[in-house]
Amino acid sequence: MIYKDRSYSNSERAQHLLSLMTLEEKVGQLVQPFGWQVYEHKDGKIELTVEFKKQVESGGIGSLYGVLRADPWTGVTLETGLSPAEGAAAVNEIQRYAIEHSRLGIPILIGEECSHGHMAIGATVFPVPLSLGSTWNVELYREMCRAVARETRSQGGAATYSPVLDVVRDPRWGRTEECFGEDAYLISELAVASVEGLQGQSLDQEDSVVATLKHFVGYGSSEGGRNAGPVHMGKRELLEVDLLPFKKAVEAGAASIMPAYNEIDGVPCTTNKELLQDTLRTEWGFEGMVITDCGAINMLAAGHDTTENGMDAAVQAIRAGIDMEMSGEMFGNHLLEAIRQGKLEEAVIDVAVRRVLDLKFALGLFDAPYADPERAARVIGSEEHVALARKLAEEGIILLKNEDQILPLSKKTGKIAVIGPNADIGYNQLGDYTSPQPATKVTTVLGGIRSKLADDPDRVLYAPGCRIKDESREGFEYALECAGQADTVVMVVGGSSARDFGEGTIDLKTGASKVTDHSWSDMDCGEGIDRMSLKLSGVQLELIQEVYKLGKPVIVVYINGRPIAEPWIEDHAHAVLEAWYPGQEGGHAIADILFGDVNPSGRLTISVPKHVGQLPVYYNGKRSRGKRYLEDDSQPRYPFGYGLSYTEFSYSNLTVEPQVIPTDGQATVRVDVANVGGREGSEVVQMYISDVASTVTRPAKELKGFRKIKLAPGESRTVEFTVGADQLQYIGQNYKPVVEPGQFRILVGKHVNDTLSTDLWIQED
Q1: pLDDT tens digits, residue range 424-477?
Q2: Side-chain half-sphere exposure of 679, counting CA atoms within 13 A
Q3: Could you confirm whether 293 is annotated as catalytic?
Q4: Which of 293, 358, 522, 530 is catalytic?
């Protein structure tokens, strides 16, 4: 048969298979049930459920979501979950049954979460995307994506629901941690790297997976920072900002896209034909698969209220351009009946099914559907990947303050008190979308510092002091006792995106784990956890203030998923490190920086306000946004691109040649960067462009280039950028890209508010 014959093209094979399928088999390809529900794991054996077998035999299943996913939502634990080898064997069992017991033997597409690592037991937990963006190291991130693809595909996972390309406009949003930051250009660079890293040279390779771009689109601009809230955005901003990373990733070859939950100007993204058809497919030429987010079609009838019932919701979605439904309930329950009632044409189904089949053939699933359990055991959580996780964490940590160069600490320093609710709780530094972890796998800050001072463990004192959210001060006394004995205090505070992994609570006097009859959640960030404030939760600030009264040097380490606005800490702490959620190697990475084994090189990709009342405070707002409030100006506490180093860098000789170019011309920007300090260090050289006068209002400054360079003491380097239409254009009055003649300012420097400048002139052709 043609569709089983490798000598035919993938397109010919898909078309032939489609011609053989019944209507029930076609609809089956468009549904994606929850994968962890199709098997039972008992006594080391995998047993497929009766329901799954019936569904395969009656029409088939196109895809499964989260076969390998483990977390409190799935209910899969370390005890009940699958090892790397067992996971691969389970996927093989699922595939074997689908192929051998369905009429046409169509393999199943296994889709997994991989935002900052394959979300399966044993997989490497990398830093969250907000930290990955803060590295400004595109090549290192691409390498991470290759590692994630390797781990996922080794178990049979063929698609991942990442990268998250949302542009953050309100950091109160709980999913800020899943995003790269507030700048569309930077996100675009990382988006391309993600697609190249995840998908590799070819999707049918053993270390490649489908990249699914999400959330399409505007999800990071929700009203009030509330998850999936309405988005109020004009077409120009949509084209210029939020759509840009998706467009660049589609051009890089992304094979899948996930629409966002939100509505834009009253139209839910799940049924937005202008986005899903006109922009994505007609204008951009996207030929891949569009899959919904979980429950998104249900929201049309119960949330957005744009349809009367589930059948209408399913019909609207597939007509708008949806190819597959995550969870599969609405498509599975209603599409067949909609066709029978004449509400939907089979030809519409055929278009969606063809895209699903095209993707499966491109992945090579018909020819090589099975994973290698032995390879999965070797690849997943390998030493190489763990080392990469540490490197990424090191480069994503940002030094915000370093009064009197108190950092780096000397390893010969006296006693160090490590205090705070995030000092030794592993799950608190991993972020949302994380699988269960054995305690020995995650290195906390306390563990990292103890490792540095292993020759004299008595020099390291520890007290949690308080929890993240609780108002209890019962741990203050012991924390102050520890701080009083120390020469230096490291306060590890922030937030938590840890769901309830059954760890119980902690003894505030000793920091020991304590199992209780009730679950305890310190989660104040993550999906669905949006806040009204950017202050520290609970009594953390009060704990820091009490410790500060002892007169000891206080170093604050933030571990968190969104910016923290605490003016008192910024004014009083002797040093401040922003570590975001740094992943399983975060404790080592933070200790490396505290003791100077690594020179901090992270830079902010999101502006940190002085107060939540300043929001929105993202750097590239319009010139007309205003200058100040009654109480304070509109400048953030820490601007976009900001970050300190243990050395100093100087900038000089900024030039642009030629200084006058036509609208389709190019110029070269050069600047000399020198390390004028006493240590080797890495600098992120940032180029911004300002259109001095434009027909349509523009941001005051926009990032249009960056380079991360390493320089030895006394070393200098000339850094070059190319400026042309891509950097100078904007969406004009007719909603098309235009480069207008006139004056442009080129700004290059350490961050958005610390730059040299020169002018470039664009003349009429």
Answers
A1: 999 999 999 999 999 899 999 999 999 999 999 999 999 999 999 999 999 999
A2: 15
A3: yes
A4: 293
